[in-house]
Each structure stands twice: as C-alpha cells, then as structure tokens.
Q: What sequence folds into this?
C-alpha cells in the first residue's frame, strides 16, 4: 500500500472515531426499531448535529468541489483488501451499543448475503466492499461528507429526508433554480444524470469505475444508492427516475436488508474468511487500485 496524501490524526490506540449517522441502531435491536431517529439521548443529539452540517453545507457548489478533489484518485494506491483493512481504524466511539470496527460490518454483510445467495459471488463482493468509501475519513474528510443518508442536490429536497427542516438553512434553498421541484434537471432524466450529495457511496462508485471493476450494473447501483433512503425507502424523487432506476430498485431493496440488519451478536472470524473474499477481490477488482 502506498499512501499519497497525509492521513487524519488518530487516537492513542490507533483508531479514528467515525460516527455513522445512517446506522442509528445497536447490535440487538428488533427490526422495527432500526433507523429510529426519534430516540432522545446524547447520541440522538449527535445524529441531529451531523445531519445539520450535512443538510446546510452540501450544496451544488460543494459537491462539485468534492468531485474535483476526490476524483483525481491521488490519495493512495492500495488493493481492495488493504482498503478494507484500513476500516479497522474507523470505530464509532460515540455509540455505547456498537464498538466494532467497520471491517466487521463488511464481513457480516457479505456473509449474510452468502448464506442467502451462495452462488452469486458478485453480490457477496458488493456486500463486502459497500462501505469501503469510508476510507475518506482516513484523509480527514468530515463525517457529514462521508456517512449518512444521501440525497439529490440541485433541486428541492424531498420531505422524506430525515431532519428535512434543516434544509431551510442551506444556501441552495434560496436559489432560483435549485429550490424548485426539478431544479437543474429535466423530468425523468434518470439518477445517472443527477448529482448526489457527496459521501462514501458516491466515492466508492467513482473509484470502481476508474479502476475498471467488473461488477454488473445491479451491483454498482447497490453501491451508489444504498444510502439513498429518501428514494429506496421513502419513495421520493419519482419525478427524476427513468425506467432503469425503477428496474434497479428491487436489487437495492434486496441488498439493504442484508446491510441494515446484518449486525448481530455473532461476529465473523475475519482472518478465517479473508482467503475466500480475497479470491472475490481478485476476480472483480484485482490488483492495486488508485483511491
């Protein structure tokens, strides 16, 4: 692995706190309690604060700036497995219920998919790598621009976005075009033609395209839109969807059941599983990648 850009400061134990506001759930919550944004607690206040920064700072101009910064792919050169191992440094120390590294969630998700889809290797691989874009935090990217639910910039925010009222403070809210329903887009232009808020989903999607990963379109949709809850769960942005988006929705819903509900008391033995998943890395995204 060759790191090309300075990394963010870590704590004394070598870890970097990463609070994932999109994973507002402890290890053993019942399914109906996952993604509960109504719970009053110190952690809830941190969730709200993270989203407030995201919803007030992620403008069209900001996202364009991030695309230019990160799509140079000059932060590091490392294999996919090395990137996953970097997730060992990303631990959410603000959550009293979840204190496991992000790499454990990666293998949990992949293994749960493998149980239900034993013959679909690309699906398993997507489960393994779907959060690898969080390595942006290693290079100092703020959490509100790394984790959390995503949304479309350049048009009026949909009411299904969590903490929707915060967008009143976003500068684009006063823009003559960006504040309208369709904004800078044409009706049913397709999600491939809109600009998403910047985060680990979009970054990993761009990394995979740049490095010519051999993942089918269904898998790329899962990676790019798995945090786009206002669409795949809230049912919003119908006026921007094209036929391909509507067809791909079933794949994202299939994936998200493994991502959202994969955390459990049973932790995978990462070292034992690595040889199997290294083979998948070599198959779908081999060699040293530019990040």
A:
């Amino acid at each position: 692995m060759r790191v090309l850009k300075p990394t963010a400061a870590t704590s004394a134990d070598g870890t970097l706190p990463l609070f994932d506001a999109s994973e507002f759930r402890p290890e053993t919550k019942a399914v109906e309690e996952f993604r509960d944004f109504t719970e009053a607690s110190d952690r809830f206040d941190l969730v709200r604060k993270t989203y407030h920064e995201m919803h007030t700072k992620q403008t069209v101009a900001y996202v364009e700036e991030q695309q230019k910064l990160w799509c140079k792919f000059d932060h590091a050169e490392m294999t996919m497995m090395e990137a996953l191992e970097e997730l060992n440094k990303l631990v959410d120390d603000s959550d009293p219920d979840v204190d496991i590294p992000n790499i454990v969630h990666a293998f949990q998700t992949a293994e749960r998919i493998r149980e239900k889809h034993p013959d679909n290797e690309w699906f398993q691989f997507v489960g393994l790598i779907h959060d690898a874009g969080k390595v942006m935090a290693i290079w100092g990217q703020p959490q509100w621009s790394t984790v959390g639910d995503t949304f479309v910039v350049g048009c009026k925010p949909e009411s299904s976005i969590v903490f929707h009222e915060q967008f009143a403070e976003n500068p684009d809210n006063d823009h003559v075009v960006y504040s309208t329903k369709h904004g800078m887009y044409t009706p049913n232009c397709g999600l491939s033609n809109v600009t998403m808020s910047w985060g680990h989903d979009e970054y990993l999607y761009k990394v995979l395209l740049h490095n010519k990963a051999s993942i089918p379109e269904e898998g790329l949709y899962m990676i790019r839109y798995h945090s786009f809850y206002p669409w795949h769960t809230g049912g919003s942005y119908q006026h921007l969807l094209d036929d391909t988006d509507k067809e791909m929705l079933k794949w994202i819903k299939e994936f998200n059941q493994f991502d959202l509900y994969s955390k459990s008391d049973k932790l995978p033995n990462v070292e034992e599983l690595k040889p199997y998943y290294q083979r998948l890395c070599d198959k779908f995204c081999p060699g040293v990648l530019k990040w």
Observations:
- The beta strands are 2-3, 16-17, 76-78, 90-91, 152-153, 195-196, 289-290.
- The longest strand covers residues 76-78.
